[in-house]
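Appendix B. One record, verbatim.
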Amino acid sequence: MRVQSDSTWPEGASALWQRRGPRLYLFALFLLALVACFLPLADHLGYELSELVALAAGLFGAAPGVAAARMERELAAPSPARAARRALCFGLCALAVPVLVILLNGLRRPACEPLGGLALYAALALPSGALSAAVGVACGFLWPRREGLAVAAIFVAALAVSLWPVLRGPQVFVFDHLGGMYPGPLYDEAIRPSSALWIFRGATLLYAGAAIGVALVANGQRRSAVPLLLCAVGALWLSLQAQALHWKASASLLDAELGGRLETGHLVLHFPREKAPAEQALLGRDAEASYLAARDFLGEGGEGGKVDVYFYRSADEKRRLLGAAETSFTKPWLRQIHTNDAPAPHPILRHELIHALAADIARGPWGVPGSLRGLVPDMALIEGLAVAGDWPAGEFTVHEEARALRDLHLMPQVQRLFQPGLFYAESGARAYTTAGSFVRWLWETRGPAFVRQAYRSDSLGDLGALAEEHGRFLDSLHEPERAVALASQRYSAPAIVRKRCAHEVAGLQREALAAVQRGEVLAAAGLWSRCAEMEPDDPALLLQLARAQIAAGESARAQQTEAKALSHPKISAPLRAQVLVQAGDAAWKASDVPQAIARYEEAARLPQTEAAERSLTVRLRAVRDRVTWPALRSLFAEGNTGPEVVLALRELDAARPRDGLAAYLIAKQMQNRGAWQECLRFAESALSRELPDARFIEEALRMKGIAAWHLGNDAMAREAFLALGKDAPPGRAIEARRWLELLR
C-alpha cells in the first residue's frame, strides 16, 4: 500500500522517528556520548569525542538515509531529493545530541573550554554524518532490501583505501571520508584543525552531493542529477591531488620536499637540501656509527637491506607532510625512520635504528613482536628494546633513573606494563625508562640471545619472577640522592590519559610560544594564564606564566604567580629552584642585589640539573661583582645573547687573564651559533686558566671535543673525550664512550 507524502520537515522528521533505524541511531549516539563522559580525554568536547562520533556517524549514520529512501519507495512518486533532505536534517540534528550530553557533563567535571572543540567537531563529525546519510539514500534506491550490506561494504572499502597509504607509505595520519581523521601518535598532544583537514572535509561534502546525484539517476531523474554529479568531478579531482593537499604522503613527495640525499654503507639519508656539505658528512658518519652500534647490540639484524632515514626541518613540516610533529617513529616493515633534524650526533637516531634492525628478528608482517603475529604490538618490549639498545647518555643511567622512580613510588609495575594496551596508560617517560631498564637488565644478565628469542617469540617466560629479580637488582643500586630529586621533576607529568585538558593545554602552549616569538608578550601571558587555569595540578605552567608576565612588564603579577607556584603542593625541588632563579633574575635586572642574592642562595640549596647548577654558580659570582654586569647581567638576567653581549664578554676576558670563566661563556655562545673554530679556541683558553669548579672543566672539555669533531680534528676530540670519561660516574662515562665509538 502506498502512503501519502509529507513535504514539510517536521512531519518528515516525525515519520523518520517512527522508523526503527533512525531511532536506534539516535540512541546509539546518546549512549556513545554517555559512555564518553567516563572515558579519559573523551569526557569533554575535543578530538577524542569528535572522532568517536565521526566513526559512529560514518558507520551508522546511513540509517536515516536508508529509512528515508524506504519511505519514498512506498510513495506513488518517490523523490530522492526529498529523502536526502529529510535524512540530512535528521542526521545532522542527531549529531547535536552528543554535544548536549557532553556539555551537561561539564557540570560533573570542570570543563576545559566548553565550546573550544566545536571546530574539531564540525570538521570531523558533521561531514561524516552528512556523507553517511547521503550514502544511505543512494543505497536505498540502488539496492533495495540490501541497503545495510551495501552501506557496510562502502564503509569498509573507504577505510581500506584510507589505511593503505599508512601501511605502504611513510605517513601516520589517516584521512577517511566516513571515519574522520587520525592525526598520528598519542604523544603529540596538540591537535587543531588544519587547512588540509578543512579541504578534505570539503571533498567529503562533495562526495555526499555526488551520492545524492546517484540516487536521482537511479530513480530516473537524470537531468536533476547533473549539478550533483558535478560534485563527483570536483571530489575526484581533489582526491587526485591528495599528495599536494597533504592527505597522503609518498617517498617521492618527501624527497621533493626535503631535497637532500646521502647513501652510506647501510643507510639512505634524506635531509633538507640546504644542509651544508660538512654537516652532511658528519651526519653520514654519525648515522653509520649508530647503525653499527645497534647491530652489535642486537647480535644480528640488518639483513633486510638499507634503512631509509628522513630528517625534517621542523616539527611543523613533519606534521604537515605525514603527521607526528614532535614524535620520531619507525616503520620496521618498510625499513623507514622519520625524525626531526638535529645537529650530529643525532639524539634519537640509534633508538630508531634498533626498531628498524629488530624487524629482521621479529616474526609477522610488521616486524614487531605482539599477539596475532604483531597485529597487537607488544609496545613495552618494542620500546624497551630500543631504549636498552640506545642506552642514552646523561647525568644518570637508565638503571639509576628507574631506581629513582622506584624510590618515588612512580615506577610502573613491569608485569602490568607488558600487558596489551597498558603501556600507553602510563606516562611516556616512566614507561620508556622502566621498560628500557628491564630489557637492558635482561640483556646484561641473560645475554643478547635471550633477548632476541623473546623478541622473536613475544615471550619472556616467567615475567613475574623476572620482574621481582629486576626489582632486587634496582634495590642493590646506590644512585645519587640528586637522581631521585631530579626524577621527581622529570617524571612528574602524568600519562596523557590522566590529564584533564591535554589537547587544549598543548594547543594553547603552542600558541603562547608562537606569540613570544612574535614579540606579543601580553598575549602570551594571557595564553599561559588559561593553561594554568585548565591544568591547576601542573606548577610548571605557573613558571611559564610568571616568565611571560615579567617579559610583559607586569612585575607585581609575576611576583604573585611566583608565590603561588612556590606554595603549590606538587612543586618539585628542581622546579622550585627554577622559580627562585627566575625571581632572582628579575631582582637583579631591577638592581635589587640583596633580593637577587637571597633568591639565588635559596635556589642553590636545592637539587638541579648540572647545567642549571653551573648557571646559578655564575649568577652568584656575578651579582656581587658589578664590573661583570654589562656582560653577565645582560646574558643571565635579561636573556640577551646578541653580539654586544659577546663583545662585553671578550672585554671581560681580556681584563682578567687568569680567570677562564669569560672564555668559557664565549665558547658556549659560539657553540650555540655553530661557530666551531671560535668555540674550540675559547674552550681551550678556558681550560688553560682558572674555572669555578670541576663541572665547568667537564663542560669545557665537552665543548672542546664537540668543536674538534666538527672541525675534523679527531685526535683532539678523542683526547678531550678520554679526559671527560676518566673517573666519570656511569652516566657521563656512557657519553664519553659513545663519542669515542663515533671517533673510531
